Amino acid sequence: MKQPRVCIAMATYNGAAHMRIQFDSLLKQTYENFVVVIRDDGSTDDTVAIVKEYQDRYPDRFVLLEDDGANLRCPGSFYRILQTCEPADYYGFCDQDDYWKPEKIACAVEVLEKLDGEGKLYLGSYDYYTQDHKYIRAFPKQQVPITLAKVIYHTPASGFTLMFDEKIRRKYICEVDPGTEMHDRWLIRCAVCFEQVVYDERSLAEHIRFEESVTAEDAGNKKLLTHFIQDELMSDVAVEAKKDLCYFEQVFGAQLTPQDAKLIHTFTKAHGWGRKLFFPHRMRARIPGEIALRILFLIGKI
Hints:
19% strand
């Protein structure tokens, strides 16, 4: 029986130093029927030359979109790929500098194929590694089911672990403006509210933390709390996240169940900090992140 067609969206930008590792891992996938559609966002290094090298060698595997001259950044570049690519059965995202285990695509398709109907979103897991291939830690295991409360201010899976079907691409990327919220959080929240979500705790990728990009998230709880203080209490990161949540409510509020609409409005309205502060459910996977979030509620920043 013919395998479902999978389209992997890869947005590149100045990734020449690291991207061959990712490309080679894609070539080692045990799954056969997939294509990687690449859009470059104005790289000034050899990124495009490397992409064209792989495209010339493997024309059935890699497709480079024509340069439209727009610098869309992330997530805009990912959205543009999925708005313009050829239709497929399933879609996923791929970063330019990670490593996928050979069975990654096959496992995701196998899980999705077991679900009935349309509107299916798969979430996977991964481990953190240094650039010299030293293990850092595992991505936190998520509690299931993944409910709306868990995706208000938390993303239970990174973009490159997602796979989803044509209905989700069409309904939440092509037929509406997905805005500027990160593609993983946007699609997960959409699917939690309206579609099917399945979580796979197996680690099927290595997320590489390069020296220039390592943050306190790759360390212990003490440094992680410092990270949240610097990046959320002392900046507008959380404010922007609330704006994204408000935009989601604006787009889909009328379609939400009364229960989900009430829950989201608890966190989008300007007042009512007490209900946010004493919200009875855990909202983030790691304790320092949960503490930082409650502090933001207490001081009325979000």
